[in-house]
Amino acid sequence: MKVALVQSIPVQGDTSASLAGLDRLIGNGSGADVYVLPEMFASGQFPDPSDIAETMDGPSVCWLRAKSRELDAAVAGSVAITENGRFANRLCFAMPDGSMATYDKHHLFSYSGENLHFSAGNERVTVTFRGVRFLLQVCYDLRFPVFSRNRDDYDAAIYVAAWPDRRSFAWDTLLRARAIENQAYVIGVNMTGQDQYGSYKGHSALIGPYGDTLAASPDNVESVTTGIMDMDMLTRFRTKFPALTDADLWEWLPDNGSEKL
User: Fold this and answer.
1) Looking at 39, 54, 114, 222, which residue is catalytic?
2) What does each C-alpha distance from 179 to 52, 126, 135, 191 come to in angstroms?
3) What whole-number distance in Å separates Cα of residue 212 and Cα of residue 4?
4) Cys-Cys crosslink for 154: which of 133, 205, 209, 247, Cβ 3.0 to 4.6 Å?
5) Do 35 and 218 form a contact (C-beta atoms < 8 A)?
6) Considering the entire predicted model, what is its pTM?
7) Pairing between β-strand 205-207 and β-strand 185-190 as defined by DSSP bridges
8) Cα(70)–Cα(52) distance, integer angstroms
């Protein structure tokens, strides 16, 4: 499976400009099966989303659906959503048949006050696309390994982020750790550029189950970088070295699936 890391610079507070920029950046596509965008790819990050939150019929979600059909690929990125009187930082995974899987960010970044305005999601979500099982995660979730522990229910974890460059070493290290400990591919896509909160190098990457970097975006520029996930290799590796069967998680975590936490 071919994955595209879409490392972009959101135009802060301007959804139309951000989406137009992404149209130019992606162009006619790169033949990927999955395109992954950063956290809040269309608005930039806002701990208080009152002025930029959309409904599920809003421009960002509609753009994801349309782009998925246009590219004949899954397209994923997070959007500030208002629903039932609350705000969610929602990762939307749009598929070309019109279906969409969604995951609301569970670990809210209290350091920036995100927890004061957003409601935490309470579901762990996986989605299968073209035979590959994806775990959906957002930014700060990367720091919490128990939540993302592989229960033999995913092949690749997606982390979309607005992760500042002063913590780039942690980003790089944790992406690699999540891949190694879960015997899975990890797709980490971060924004680049600057906003009122800091600067962002990007450091978007596709990490293999051995912890090797299979694709990496250039620093400090918008780019579309592609890499290949070899599912046959992943199966052989897990069969040869079945570490997941020894994981000490079953008695500590809820049952498998996208259940309530």
Assistant:
1) 39
2) 33, 16, 12, 21
3) 17
4) 133
5) no
6) 0.94
7) antiparallel
8) 26
Looking at residue 48, its amino acid is: D
3 state SS of 97: coil
Q: How far is CA 199 from CA 81, 84, 164, 168, in A?
A: 24, 33, 6, 11
Has 62 been annotated as catalytic? no
Work out whether strand 156-161 and strand 185-190 pair parallel, antiparallel, or are unpaired. parallel
The CA distances from residue 139 to 45, 77, 89, 241, 246, in Å, are 11, 11, 10, 29, 28
Among 67, 92, 105, 114, the active-site one is 105
Helix (H), strand (E) counts: the chain = 4, 14
Q: Is the dihedral of CA 87, 51, 56, 128 positive or negative?
A: negative
pLDDT > 70? residue 138:
yes
Three-class secondary structure of residue 56 per DSSP: coil
Q: Mean pLDDT for the chain?
A: 94
Phi, psi torsion values for 100, nearest 5 degrees: -150, 135
| Angle subtended by helix axes 59-71 and 15-26, to nearest 10 | 10
Phi, psi of 111 (to 5 degrees): -55, -35
Contact 207, 213 (CB under 8 A): yes
The per-residue pLDDT for 226 is 98
pLDDT in tens, 59-80: 999 999 999 999 999 999 999 9
Which of 92, 139, 201, 222 is an active site residue? 139
What amino acid is encoded at 147 in this protein? F
- C-alpha distances (whole Å) from 49 to each of 54, 112, 138 are 9, 13, 16
